[in-house]
Amino acid sequence: MAINKNHEFEELENVKCSIVEKNVSPDRVSFLKTLLEYNKFTVVVIPSPAPKAAAKTVVAVEEGADVVPPPAASLAPETFTVGVTDYTFNPTNGIYGRSLKTPDGHIVTAAYWFQKETVSHDEVPYYEFKG
């Protein structure tokens, strides 16, 4: 287990990995996998575990009363856990340490990482960008 939440690691598919993000959508997996593989990381993606079911409540039913079965468990959206085999990788340090690059050669910014922008504006410091 990690010392803090900023650098988690665990075994994914029997390989010790640094966790990049948990509970991400398939679109986000595609974005992260492309970006991280471009930066020469080996990416491991596994389905996220299903959320734990809430404790069941017991309801007394009178004899002869109609019993209505509980509703089927709602299907949770399919999410994934993304990790890289380099367990020293920390996504926060990668972004703010300016060590990740986009496929078009720019530095990955926080806005690009979180997909708020489709182009990384690395020439202008984040605190000066008026975009």
Walkthrough of the structure:
With 131 residues, this protein is of the alpha+beta class. The chain has one domain. 18% of the residues lie in helices and 18% in strands. The chain is built from 3 helices and 4 strands. The chain has helices spanning 26-38, 91-96, 110-113; strands at residues 9-12, 15-24, 43-47, 80-84. Strand 1 and strand 2 form a beta hairpin.
Q: Quick recap of the structure?
A:
The chain is 18% helix and 18% strand.
Characteristics:
4-stranded antiparallel β-sheet; 3 helices; 131 residues; alpha+beta
How many domains? The number is 1
Taking the sheet with the most strands, its summary is: 4 strands, antiparallel
How are helices and strands ordered from N to C?
A: EEHEEHH
The rounded Rg comes to 21 Å
Tell me the strand order in the biggest sheet: 1-2-4-3
How many DSSP helices? 3
Total strand segments: 4
Find the structural class using helix and strand composition.
alpha+beta
Calculate the terminal CA-CA distance, rounded to whole Å: 39 Å
Overall average residue pLDDT:
81
Q: Kindly state the percentage of residues in helix.
A: 10-25%
Shape: elongated
Report the β-strand fraction as a percent range. Answer: 15-25%
Low-confidence stretches: none
